[in-house]
Amino acid sequence: MAPALKTILIVDDDEGMRDTLMAILKRDYRVLSVSSAEDGLSRLRQTRVDLMLLDVRLPGIGGLELLRQVREQRDEVEVIMISAITDVETAVQAMKLGAYHYITKEFDYDALRALVRNASERQDLRNRVESLTAQVQAQDEEFVTGTSATMKAVVSLVQKVARLDSTVLITGESGTGKEMLARRIHAESDRRKGPFIAVNLAAVPSELVESTLFGHERGSFTGAVRQQLGKFELANSGTLFLDEIGDLRLELQAKLLRAIQEDEIERVGGRHPIQVDFRLVVATNADLSEAVRQGRFREDLFYRINVIPARLPALRDRKEDLGQLLDVFIRRYALRFRKVVRGIEPSAFAVLERYAWPGNIRELQNLAERMVAVCDKAEITEADLPLEVQLAALEALTADQGESVLDQAVAAFERSYLLKALEKGEWNIAATARQLRLPLSTLKHRMGRLRLTDVTRRLRDA
Ligand SMILES: Nc1ncnc2c1ncn2[C@@H]1O[C@H](COP(=O)(O)OP(=O)(O)OP(=O)(O)O)[C@@H](O)[C@H]1O
């Protein structure tokens, strides 16, 4: 897809000048023109504008005041000021107010073209810096597919549909990687050079959801001190990711449906529809068809977004991927914390395999960070695992042996305590027993009961 032409808005009361500028620029840009600052501001509210050429002397609101308002309301627009005369003071003021450049009306056509091109490039550069900054922040996000059939199927589906503009509905429990998958769809689509805008609808206060999504005009409600672009406009030429779509209020569901069907939105307090060009990816961990049955989610919207469904499996259902995920995370945090940790001992890994991972990959990643942070050896051992994970894993193991939950908790604590003591005593059982003031036979007995198998193996090997 060819990149959309940038839009230049000319504000000049001199018709001849407007025509000249239009003629010079229309080959490379979409050019709009108005004759007053007031019209300029209203145009700015209705259409997407990238660059502006402003006459300094205008009837009504003057060029400098217009510049100030543009800066205040639309930070991303680059402005070039044009004046009939060279007036150093005005030029200085214009630059101070944030104009990209100031020129007089006796400009050379090529010089003007070059100037506009440079302003446009500066804007691209700024966008690029912003998107690179976001990428650096997300640099840790190496997407791990693993070997499970379910994940392979999801990834192959994504590869097939990324380049289509169809809406993708990602479902999966919290922390299974829905946002990450959405980013991947964007990165593999023809919109990859455009922005990826993510909104978690459950995290936005309900009274702000509408203006967050659709933007608002200045003064449209108390607190709307300046015009604000909504996420739909910010996602222009890119991808809009709406997480927790099931949380959207019914009346906003209707507005979303219109945006999808007409590619048009209306800002809060706005009087005109605005064209938008976005690809939608939505996610939910709720059962949307159930929400439809209960009348909490519009059926027509459900069908409109459920074009390509992609289901991410829970981590407990793809345990075969645990090793690969853990490797990636351990490597990442070892590098970040400058630790020597390179892996995890089999016995510790076995505990993680028994654990149910209610928080899915997010929980695994946080746990890896915590384990690497506390581990000073080459391999993470059972002693580095947090007690609650050991307890939960032990519960899973002993659930059908009729032990009470209290007994399980006591056992998990005892096991963790003994492990730490053994680590400290470098696995010298006799020394550890002395340290704990326990008879050697008691310690050995408890180690056997608590399945400290790794230790038992070491003992045998010694
Ligand atoms: N396949 C993967 N490979 C590597 N890291 C992953 C993967 N999936 C998820 N993660 C990591 O797990 C964390 C949670 O992922 P993400 O935010 O995409 O989940 P989510 O399903 O959108 O969660 P929620 O429903 O809570 O918003 C992120 O930090 C992400 O980097």
From TrEMBL:
<dbReference type="Pfam" id="PF02954">
    <property type="entry name" value="HTH_8"/>
</dbReference>
<keyword id="KW-0547">Nucleotide-binding</keyword>
<dbReference type="InterPro" id="IPR058031">
    <property type="entry name" value="AAA_lid_NorR"/>
</dbReference>
<keyword id="KW-0597">Phosphoprotein</keyword>
<dbReference type="InterPro" id="IPR003593">
    <property type="entry name" value="AAA+_ATPase"/>
</dbReference>
<feature type="domain" description="Response regulatory">
    <location>
        <begin position="7"/>
        <end position="120"/>
    </location>
</feature>
<keyword id="KW-0804">Transcription</keyword>
<dbReference type="InterPro" id="IPR002078">
    <property type="entry name" value="Sigma_54_int"/>
</dbReference>
<dbReference type="Pfam" id="PF00158">
    <property type="entry name" value="Sigma54_activat"/>
</dbReference>
<dbReference type="GO" id="GO:0043565">
    <property type="term" value="F:sequence-specific DNA binding"/>
</dbReference>
<feature type="coiled-coil region">
    <location>
        <begin position="115"/>
        <end position="142"/>
    </location>
</feature>
<keyword id="KW-0067">ATP-binding</keyword>
<dbReference type="Pfam" id="PF25601">
    <property type="entry name" value="AAA_lid_14"/>
</dbReference>
<feature type="domain" description="Sigma-54 factor interaction">
    <location>
        <begin position="144"/>
        <end position="373"/>
    </location>
</feature>
<dbReference type="GO" id="GO:0000160">
    <property type="term" value="P:phosphorelay signal transduction system"/>
</dbReference>
<dbReference type="InterPro" id="IPR001789">
    <property type="entry name" value="Sig_transdc_resp-reg_receiver"/>
</dbReference>
<dbReference type="InterPro" id="IPR002197">
    <property type="entry name" value="HTH_Fis"/>
</dbReference>
<dbReference type="InterPro" id="IPR025944">
    <property type="entry name" value="Sigma_54_int_dom_CS"/>
</dbReference>
<dbReference type="InterPro" id="IPR025662">
    <property type="entry name" value="Sigma_54_int_dom_ATP-bd_1"/>
</dbReference>
<protein>
    <submittedName>
        <fullName>Transcriptional regulatory protein ZraR</fullName>
    </submittedName>
</protein>
<dbReference type="InterPro" id="IPR011006">
    <property type="entry name" value="CheY-like_superfamily"/>
</dbReference>
<dbReference type="GO" id="GO:0006355">
    <property type="term" value="P:regulation of DNA-templated transcription"/>
</dbReference>
<feature type="modified residue" description="4-aspartylphosphate">
    <location>
        <position position="55"/>
    </location>
</feature>
<keyword id="KW-0805">Transcription regulation</keyword>
<dbReference type="InterPro" id="IPR009057">
    <property type="entry name" value="Homeodomain-like_sf"/>
</dbReference>
<dbReference type="GO" id="GO:0005524">
    <property type="term" value="F:ATP binding"/>
</dbReference>
<keyword id="KW-0175">Coiled coil</keyword>
<dbReference type="Pfam" id="PF00072">
    <property type="entry name" value="Response_reg"/>
</dbReference>
<dbReference type="InterPro" id="IPR027417">
    <property type="entry name" value="P-loop_NTPase"/>
</dbReference>
